[in-house]
Every structure is written in C-alpha cells, then in structure tokens.
C-alpha cells in the first residue's frame, strides 16, 4: 500500500496537475454539453436504448399478434400493419432491441480482439508485428460487405447471433491499427520511461499507464462503429442472410419491399428508425471525439 | 528513390498480398460446415458415384493444403473456377457482368468527386460560417442514411408514384431496335437512380475528407507565405492550397472501389442491375461455393489493382514521395 | 529628421476567441528609419509575430486589427484597400518566417515560387524572369542556381531553404524586410551564415529590416536599434549599445541578465520567476508587475505609458519619468 503511494507521487515528473478520474469525466461531460448536435445525438441514443430495453412495456401490441393485414397508419395502429397483420409500431420497437443487441455485441467482440491484437503487435514488434499488420491491411482493403457475405453464407444457420459474431470477428482491423500506433507512441513517451526507471514492471506499465490513455480513443471508435454494425446487420438481413423470422429492421424492409407500390408505411418507418439510430450514434460519436480529444491534449 | 523504383517495389508487394487474400478467402469458404458437394447439388437426387466423381473433380478427396494449392494454381492460370449450378465457367459469367458494375462505379465516382471537391473547398474556405456548418451536417446525414433504404424510398417515389424512372434493370425491352441515341438515353434513365443512391453516401464521405484536408492545408505556413507575396486570395486557394489538399483525395478515389463495391452489392440487388454485386449476393444465397471463391478473388484482384493505381498516381503528383 | 520608413502607433490587434478576447498586441509603438535594422525582442507569445503579420495586414479570423495606425512611406496601411495591400506585400514589404521547411509550398519548385513573386510585382518577360531567379539565388549564395531552381523545397537543407526564402523576399526590391525569427530553427553555424547574408543584402538592396527574435546574440549581430516587447506591450526602445549598457526596464535587464556570458563571473543565471500572463482580459496594471523585483504600489493599479528618457530611448515603467498620468487616458 505504501509502496504504491510513494511510487505514484514519484511518477508525476511531467504531470504537475493530473485531475482525478472523476474530474476528467466531468470535464468531458461539460464539453459535450456545449455541442448541441452531440446532445441531440446522445438523446437519440438514450431514446433508442430505453425503447429497446422497455420494449415489452412500451409496445402497444405483441409483435406476433396478427390482425388485419396491410392497413395504413391509423388511430389503432400508429404506423400501420404489415402484410401479416402485425402492428408496425410494435415491430419497429422490437427491432430496436435487435439493432442494439447486434451493435453492442459486435462492438464488444471487436474491441476485445482489436485490443489484443493491437497490443500484441505493438508490444512484441518485429516479425509478429509485420505479419499482423499485413493481415490487418488486407482485411481493411477488401470490401466489407463482400467479406461479411462470404463469412455469413457459409453457416447453415441464419440468425442475428451469427451475424453479430461474424461482424465482430471481421471488424477489428481498423481499431487494432489505431491501438497499435497509440501503444507504440505511448511506449516511447517520457512518463512511461519515468515509470520504468522506477522499476515498474511491463505489465504494470501497460495496465496502469498505457491502457487508460488508449481508452478514450477506443471509446470514440467503438461509438462510431456501432451504427455501422447496425447498418450491416440490417443490410445482411435485407439481402437474405439473416433470420427471416426476427424483428430486425432489415427483415421489415425486406418484407416491405414487396409492397412498395401499395403500402408505403411498411418501408418508410423501419427505415426511418434505422436512419435516426445511425444519425444519433454518429452525432454523439463526433461530439465525443471532439470532447475527448481536446481533454487529452489540452492543458 | 525514383518513381520507377517505387512502382516496381509496389508491384512486388502485390504478390504476398495476393496470396494472403487467397488464403483468407479459401479459409473463409472452407470453414463452412457441411459437405460442399451436398450443399452444391442441393436436394436433387444424385447417385452416389456421380457425387464421388464430382468430389474427385473438385479435388475434395485431397488434404486441405493441396486443395488450396490446386486452386491457387488454377487462379494463376486464369481459371476462376466452374459453377456446377449454372454449368458455366466462372470467368465467363464475370465477363458478362463486370462492365455493368464498372459503369455504375465510374458514374458514381465522377459525380461524387466533382460535387465533393466543390462543396468541400467552399466549406473549408468559409470555415466558421453557416454554410460550412450546414454542409457538414448534411454530409453527416448523408453518411448516416442506410443506402438500401434510400434506394427503396427512391423507387417508391420516383418509380411507383411518379413514374419518372424505371424501378430496375438496365434497359427497356426492345430498345435495341430504336436508334442508338434513344437506346443510350433509355439506358441512362435506368442508370440514374442506382448511381444517385451510391453518390449520396460516397459524396458525404469524400466531402468530409476534402474539407478536412483543405482546412489542414489552409493552416499551413506556406499559405501565409503565398499571401505575403501579394497573391490574390483566389490564386492562393486554387493554386497553392488546392493542389496540396487534393493529394490525399487521389488515394481515396482509388481506394473507393472497396467502399463502392459494398454499396454496389446492395444497390445492384435492389435495382436488378446485372453486375458483380448482384451476382455475389445471388451466388452466396445459392451456396455456389466454387463460383463464390472465384468471384471473391476477382473482386479482390480488382481492389488490389485499383489501390495500386491510386498509390502510383499519388506518387506521381506528390514530389515528396519519390524521395522517401 | 526625415520621415521614418515605418511608423507604428498604438497598434492594437485582438483575437476574438471562444474563451475570450486575447489582446495579443495592445498599444505598440515602433519606428524604423530608412536603411535601419530594428530588432524586436521578447519571449514566445508576447505578440512579436502578431506585430509582423499586422504590418502586412495578414491577420485573419478570429484576429482583427482594432486600432492604431501603421504608416509606411508616409501612408497609413490600415486605410488601404485589399488590392493596394497586395501590391505592397512582396513588393514593398516582404516577410520571411521561422521555419523554412514549412514556409514553401512542397508541390512547386523553388524556382517557380520565386518566379511567381517576380511576375507579380515586376514587368518582365518569361526569360527575363528566369534570369532574375537565377541571379537572386546566386546572390543569396545558393550554388548552381540554374539547376537548383528546378528542385523542390524538400530537396533543400534548412539553411539553403532559408536563403531561398530570403531570395524570394528580396526578389522584388522590397524596402522593408520583416524577418520573423529567421534563424531560430537553424544550426548555430548556419545561423551565422544567414546573418552574414542579411548584412550583405541589407547593404546591397538598401533595405530596412525588422528582425524579430528572442535571442540577444542574434539581435546584436545585425540590429541598429532594439525594441523590447512583453505580453503585448512595448516596454523599452533604444539603440543597440544603450540597450546593452543602460537597459532601464526591469524586464530588459532580466533578459540581458539571463544571457550566459564568458567575460563576467556569475554564479548562476538570472531567471525570471513566474510565467507570461494570459492575454485574455488582462487586469489594468503593468503586465510585468507579478514578476518584477522593483514593483511599487502604483504598478499594480495602472499601466505605465511609454516615455522618452533619453536620446532615442523610451521606457514604459513607473520607475522612470514622472508618475503623473499623461494627458490622454486609456481607461
């Protein structure tokens, strides 16, 4: 206990004033609030999350309930019904669940893999680094959708879990590259040198010094990747590579496609939901990036 | 290093990348559970010995690395595989469809690049103004819209409701009997919607890049020097700043092929545009694995070549690169 | 006394940022006679570069020149139109910057960039321009100018490029050359070469120079007179010998005292405690007050004005001159 304390007080050669984690979060929050767009984005994200979580409570109808088919929006059915007679509003609400699940799930997998690979490449360097980076570059240049289609099509089972897993497994390259370069530059930084000269072990340096700094970059990248995953899931499902029985917005759009001529509500609303969710995450991510970046380098 | 050395080096780098890609594609396909022959043939009743023969032909009785080598060997000879489902060599089918995709990508790129550069430069020069904020927001919106949704909405509005444009396909039946001018015009009406949808997302992305690049350049010392020489602001922007700001754009356009292909897959499917994107979706759906492998390699090679061209083009325009 | 070439009076340049108004230059007076070299000294952030850019009216959003006058050859530059200023920039007044590597456009050849300047300010045919470029590159000491003019900036070394920048600045026979820390980024040996070059060129082109820097060694090589700035204000102005022998302002004395010297025995270098103040909403007092050893009561309440205390020697400090407030008020 005492050794940690003394090490800490000695590890501050450059940081005359390093605010505690709580104050840093507070400063970021203040900065975020300044940008109106970021606030709108955050609000949207919050809204979608709440809707997804409370779906069973919010949705006016059970999504499986069948009523009159293909009814336009009305007082009983705010967004109309689909070809099978299900209430669109409820379907869209339940669709939010799927999107969020996919988005968060894939991002989680992505972050874990990217952190691992990025740090391994950065830490070991040399041949391992080169090989890993070559693979990263190749996966990055190939068209994403093509890779996803390839990967998903080989499974017998079609479903959101498969899609989520596949996307996470194929989405790490970009983040891994960033993690690696940050890792490398931080490794050379003077305060890591100082820590090392105090006798800190490599592991300790990585966990206590390097990781927290990489954290903010990862948070921003992850937030900006979520809408992409939601989008790709919808696209894959729309193209027929997903579960046709789920409530994914992609499925709704796929089914609604057939009734383009006659039932405009079937494609408009799920699509709008997709659009606003994406936009919300993007706005929030942009704002987050501005807020965190400045705090990082600001004095 | 001279330009020649750079190009040669870059060309040599393609070889390991090519093999790496082929391994990735091969591995992805072969991780598929299930017997490929059964999957390929489907529920049709096929006698056992015919299956064995197909298996032998496909080399499926060999160990996996041998299969890989055989496949790569064929690739290098230009044999992209044979589709058992359609009974045609893959390369023939690709040949029919490749021009359609290229046509779409070219049109989309041309439009997008033009619009993005014009808007991006204006936004950067008018930094802090309303038009800058608005166009940036517009770009973000364009970037966030799901392309297949906009495609569907566009078809609904412009085709189903208004009847201005056709909902899909490449040309009207029988148009070939009309004059070439009519045929061209007709074809263009089919091209409009798919191109516009692609343009929406791509322009948004490019705009952000151009604007960011231009902003960075405008903050450089040499721009102040140019002004200090007494040059008109217009000259400073279009001669000194733009030249530098557009350098990275060259690479983006080259690398666009990867991005555009993802969009093309969806767009082509929706608009029944007979290109490689639609082909890929179709082939993946029907689990025509040999074709899928060949097609994927073809696309990957196209992307590789486009990236190579982008890198070389960049080396030509930026004098600093050659002297690394 | 003939009219000075450049006369800056009460120049105020403020930057209107999101955090507040930064008063980068807050009432500066300067004077440069024909053929004279004036050194402008001060720490980083004191506003010297802003003075330079203001003179050429190159201040851009969010900065703005809010007051004062800049008389060049008898005319107030702040009254001129943009078109008239463009003729002056590069033609009558030119500037060279601190970092030569970033001051030239990397995608154009050095020769073409110099030619661009010549074409702008002088009536000359294509082949004449080319000859002039070669001539001026030669004058600044670039070997094989005919070949080197076809090279790109990154193919030049730092010192060579600074020479080329100087060539570009003087290519149109400017009357006033502003050199903003031209040697700071260069090796000491190259530094000496560039200073020598400036001495020669000054004689040959009969140009006045405003040399901006923070290194007294460099200043003493070239300058006739010296002006010292601190936190956006001018604190002392005198000729070279006077500054070195009889500096009056505490800041100037401290600056000079912090130069390591070989001829005087000193135990430690004098350091100036404290930090340069932030220029957003500065309090109405002497800006050097917090760090001054001789501070008096009045120093924390009012801003000292620039007063002449000798032949061509002015100071802004309450230690000198009358303590009565002058006629024109600033508050």
What does this structure look like?
The complex is a heterotrimer of chains A (299), B (324) and C (331). Chain A contains 13 helices and no strands. Chain A is an all-alpha fold and 299 residues long. Chain A has one domain (23-291): MetI-like fold (Orthogonal Bundle), CATH 1.10.3720.10. By secondary structure, chain B is mostly helical. In chain B, strand 1 and strand 2 (88-89) form a beta hairpin. Chain C has a single domain (6-315), classed as P-loop containing nucleotide triphosphate hydrolases (Rossmann fold, 3-Layer(aba) Sandwich), CATH 3.40.50. Chain C contains 11 helices and 12 strands. In chain C, the strands form 2 sheets. Chain C has an 8-stranded mixed β-sheet with strand order 6-7-8-3-9-10-12-11, with helices on both faces. In chain C, strand 11 (307-310) and strand 12 form a beta hairpin. Chains A and B meet through helix 6, helix 7, helix 11, helix 12 and helix 13 of A and helix 1, helix 6, helix 7, helix 11 and helix 12 of B.
């Amino acid at each position: 206990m005492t050794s940690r304390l003394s090490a800490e007080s000695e590890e501050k050669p450059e940081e005359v004033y390093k605010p505690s984690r709580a104050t840093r979060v507070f400063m970021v929050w203040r900065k975020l609030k300044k940008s109106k767009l970021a606030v709108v984005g955050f609000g949207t994200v919050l809204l979608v999350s709440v809707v997804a979580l409370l779906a069973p409570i919010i949705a006016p109808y059970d999504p499986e309930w069948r009523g009159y088919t293909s009814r336009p929006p009305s007082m009983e059915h705010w967004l109309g019904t689909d070809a099978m007679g299900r209430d669109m509003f409820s379907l869209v609400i339940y669709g939010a669940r799927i999107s969020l699940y996919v988005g968060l799930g894939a991002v989680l997998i992505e972050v874990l893999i990217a952190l691992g690979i990025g740090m391994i490449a950065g830490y070991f360097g040399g041949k391992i680094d080169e090989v890993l980076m070559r693979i990263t570059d190749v996966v990055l240049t190939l068209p994403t959708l093509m890779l996803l289609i390839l990967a998903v099509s080989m499974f017998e089972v079609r479903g959101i879990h498969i899609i989520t897993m596949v996307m996470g497994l194929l989405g790490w390259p970009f983040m891994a590259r960033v993690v690696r370069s940050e890792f490398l530059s931080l490794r050379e930084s003077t305060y890591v040198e100082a820590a090392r000269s105090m006798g800190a072990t490599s592991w300790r340096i990585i966990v206590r010094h390097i990781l927290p700094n990489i954290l903010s970059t990862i948070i921003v990248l992850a937030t900006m990747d979520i809408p992409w995953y939601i989008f790709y899931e919808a696209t894959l499902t729309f193209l027929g590579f997903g579960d046709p029985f789920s409530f994914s917005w992609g499925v709704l759009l796929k089914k609604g496609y057939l009734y383009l001529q006659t039932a405009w509500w079937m494609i408009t609303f799920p699509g709008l939901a997709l659009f606003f969710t994406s936009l919300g995450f993007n706005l929030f991510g942009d704002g987050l990036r501005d807020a965190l970046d400045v705090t990082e380098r600001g004095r | 290093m001279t330009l020649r050395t750079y190009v040669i080096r870059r060309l040599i780098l393609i070889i390991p990348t090519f093999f790496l890609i082929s391994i990735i594609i091969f591995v992805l396909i072969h991780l598929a559970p299930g017997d490929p022959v059964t999957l390929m043939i489907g529920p049709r009743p096929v006698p056992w010995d015919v299956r064995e023969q197909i298996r032998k032909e496909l080399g499926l009785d060999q160990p996996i690395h041998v299969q890989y080598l055989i496949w790569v060997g064929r690739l290098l000879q230009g044999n992209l595989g044979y589709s058992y489902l359609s009974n045609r060599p893959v390369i023939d089918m690709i040949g029919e469809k490749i021009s359609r995709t290229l046509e779409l990508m070219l049109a989309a790129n041309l439009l997008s690049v033009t619009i993005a550069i014009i808007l991006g430069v204006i936004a950067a020069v008018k930094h802090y103004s309303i038009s800058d904020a608005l166009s940036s927001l517009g770009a973000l919106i364009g970037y966030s819209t799901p392309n297949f949704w906009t495609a569907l909405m566009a078809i609904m509005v412009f085709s189903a409701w208004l009847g201005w444009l056709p909902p899909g396909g490449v040309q009207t039946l029988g148009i070939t009997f009309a004059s070439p001018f009519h045929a061209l015009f007709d074809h263009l009406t089919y091209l409009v919607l798919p191109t516009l949808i692609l343009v929406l997302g791509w322009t948004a992305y490019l705009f952000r890049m151009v604007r960011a690049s231009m902003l960075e350049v405008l903050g450089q010392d040499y721009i102040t020097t140019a002004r200090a020489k007494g040059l008109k602001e217009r000259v400073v922007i279009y001669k000194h700043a733009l030249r530098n700001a557009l350098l990275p754009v060259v690479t983006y356009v080259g690398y666009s092929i990867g991005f555009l292909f993802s969009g093309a897959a969806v767009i082509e499917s929706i608009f029944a545009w007979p290109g490689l994107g639609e082909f890929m979706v179709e082939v993946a759906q029907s689990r025509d694995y040999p074709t899928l492998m060949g097609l994927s390699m073809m696309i990957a090679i196209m992307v590789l070549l486009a990236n190579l061209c982008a890198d070389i083009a960049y080396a030509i325009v930026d004098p600093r690169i050659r002297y690394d | 006394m003939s009219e000075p070439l450049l006369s800056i009076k009460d120049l105020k340049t403020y930057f209107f940022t999101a955090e507040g108004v930064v008063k980068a230059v807050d009432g500066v007076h300067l004077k440069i006679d024909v053929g004279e070299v004036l050194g402008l000294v001060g720490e980083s952030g004191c506003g010297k570069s802003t003075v330079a850019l203001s003179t050429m009216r190159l201040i851009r959003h969010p900065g703005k020149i809010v007051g004062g006058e800049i008389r060049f050859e008898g005319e107030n530059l702040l009254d001129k139109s943009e078109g008239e200023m463009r003729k002056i920039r590069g033609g009558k007044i030119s500037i060279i910057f601190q970092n030569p590597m970033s001051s030239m456009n990397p995608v154009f050849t050095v020769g073409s960039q110099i030619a661009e300047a010549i074409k702008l300010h002088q009536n000359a045919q294509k082949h004449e321009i080319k000859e002039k470029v070669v001539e001026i590159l030669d004058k600044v000491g670039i070997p094989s100018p005919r070949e080197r003019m076809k090279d790109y900036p990154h193919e030049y070394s730092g010192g060579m490029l600074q020479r080329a920048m100087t060539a570009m600045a003087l290519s149109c026979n400017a009357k006033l050359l502003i050199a903003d820390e031209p040697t700071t980024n260069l090796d000491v040996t190259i530094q000496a070469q560039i200073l020598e070059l400036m001495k020669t060129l000054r004689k040959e082109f009969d140009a006045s120079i405003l040399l901006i820097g923070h290194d007294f060694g460099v200043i003493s090589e070239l300058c006739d007179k010296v002006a010292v700035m601190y936190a956006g204000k001018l604190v002392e102005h005198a000729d070279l010998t006077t500054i070195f022998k009889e500096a009056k302002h505490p800041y100037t004395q401290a600056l000079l005292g912090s130069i390591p010297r070989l001829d005087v025995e000193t135990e430690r270098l004098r350091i100036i405690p404290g930090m340069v103040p932030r220029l957003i909403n500065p309090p109405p007092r002497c800006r050097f007050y917090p760090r001054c050893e001789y501070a008096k009561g009045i120093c924390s309440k009012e801003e000292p004005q620039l007063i002449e205390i000798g032949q061509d020697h002015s100071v802004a400090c309450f230690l000198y001159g009358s303590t009565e407030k002058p006629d024109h008020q600033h508050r």
